[in-house]
Design brief:
alpha/beta; Neutral Protease, domain 2; 6 strands
C-alpha cells in the first residue's frame, strides 16, 4: 500500500498504511530473502479505501479505544474478544515505544469487499482504520492496527513534527513498534533482515518506494525497522528522539549529521555491519 506522511485529512488526505498489501503467498520467513511480509500481516491487494463520513457499525469501548466494527466483518460472538485483542496490541506497542496514548483513539474496522486488507491512520483526528473481510483471520487486522497505533503514539510523543517525519524513521518506528505482530517468529528486526544483507539483496535506506514493486516496499519497511532498532540500541533513545523531529518527509531527510555527528551514509554502513554480525 501507499503510505504518505501522516497528515490530517484537511491537509492532503488520509495517510495510507505502507503495510504491504501484497498477494498472499508465503507462510514463513524464508532465506535468503522473502518477497513478501509475513502472511500473518498481509493478504490480497486491496484498493486505497477509507471512510470519511460517520462510522457505521457495532460500537465497543475498551480502556483506550472506541472501536466501531462494520457489519459482516467480525462475527458478533467474536467482537468483544477482538476488541480485547486490539487493546492488548495497544498496550504492547505502548510498552515498546515507551509512551502511551495521550487521549482515546477511535479504531474503525471496515469491510473490504475484495477481501484484501489495508489500513490508514488519521493521526490529527486520533483515528485508525483497517479494511478486511470475514474470511481472513481477525489476527491480521490486529497486526495491521498494531502498526497504525504506533503512528498515533508517535504523534502523541513527538507532536506535530511527526507529520513531517523522515520516512525512514516514521515507517521504521511504526514497524519496529509493532514488534512481534510483524516479526513472524523472528526475535528481532536485525535477525529478520540479516539474510537479505548477507545475500546482497537489500536496498539503500534512503530509497523511496514510490513507483517500485511491492516487494521493494516490503524490504524497505523491514530494513527501516532494523535501522531504528540499531539507532536505539547502539546510540540510545535520547538521540533517536532528537533525530525523529528533524525530518522533512523524504527518506533520509532527518539531521543525522547534527544529531550523531555522522551522515546517514556512514550510519548506514555501521548498521549493515551491525546486522551482519548479529549473534
Amino acid at each position: 500500500m501507499i503510505s504518505l506522511p501522516h497528515i490530517s485529512r484537511a491537509a492532503i488526505g488520509p495517510t495510507l498504511l505502507g503495510v504491504l498489501i501484497v498477494a498472499l503467498a508465503l507462510l514463513v520467513h524464508p532465506a535468503p530473502r522473502p518477497s513478501l511480509a509475513p502472511a500473518s500481516v498481509v493478504a490480497e491487494v486491496a484498493p486505497a479505501q477509507t471512510t470519511t463520513g460517520p462510522l457505521q457499525g457495532t460500537s465497543i469501548t475498551v480502556q483506550w479505544l472506541d472501536i466501531v466494527i462494520a457489519e459482516d466483518v467480525i462475527p458478533p460472538a467474536d467482537q468483544q474478544a477482538f476488541a480485547n485483542e486490539l487493546e492488548q496490541a495497544l498496550t504492547y506497542v505502548s510498552s515498546r515505544l515507551g509512551s502511551g496514548p495521550s487521549e482515546r483513539i477511535t479504531a474503525y474496522v471496515g469491510l473490504e469487499a475484495s477481501c484484501g486488507i489495508h489500513g490508514v491512520a488519521y493521526t490529527n483526528e486520533r483515528m485508525v482504520q483497517v479494511y478486511t473481510c470475514s474470511s481472513l483471520p481477525r489476527g491480521r487486522a490486529v497486526n495491521i492496527l498494531a502498526h497504525e497505533f504506533v503512528h498515533q503514539l508517535a504523534q502523541d510523543r513527538y507532536g506535530e513534527r511527526h507529520l513531517q517525519g523522515d520516512l525512514i524513521l516514521l515507517e521504521g518506528l511504526a514497524t519496529w513498534g509493532a514488534g512481534s505482530y510483524w516479526l513472524s517468529g523472528e526475535e528481532s528486526f536485525r535477525a529478520f533482515v540479516m539474510p537479505w544483507l548477507a545475500a546482497g539483496t537489500s536496498l539503500p535506506l534512503a530509497t523511496s518506494y514510490v513507483g517500485r514493486p511491492i516487494g521493494d516496499m516490503n524490504t524497505l519497511y523491514y530494513q527501516w525497522a532494523s535501522f531504528v532498532e540499531f539507532l536505539m540500541q547502539v546510540y540510545g533513545r535520547e538521540r533517536f528522539d532528537a533525530l525523529y523531529v528533524t525530518g522533512s518527509s523524504d527518506p533520509g531527510s532527518a539531521d543525522y549529521q547534527g544529531v550523531y555527528g555522522k551522515p546517514l551514509a556512514e550510519l548506514e554502513q555501521e548498521w549493515r555491519a551491525w546486522v551482519i554480525t548479529s549473534p
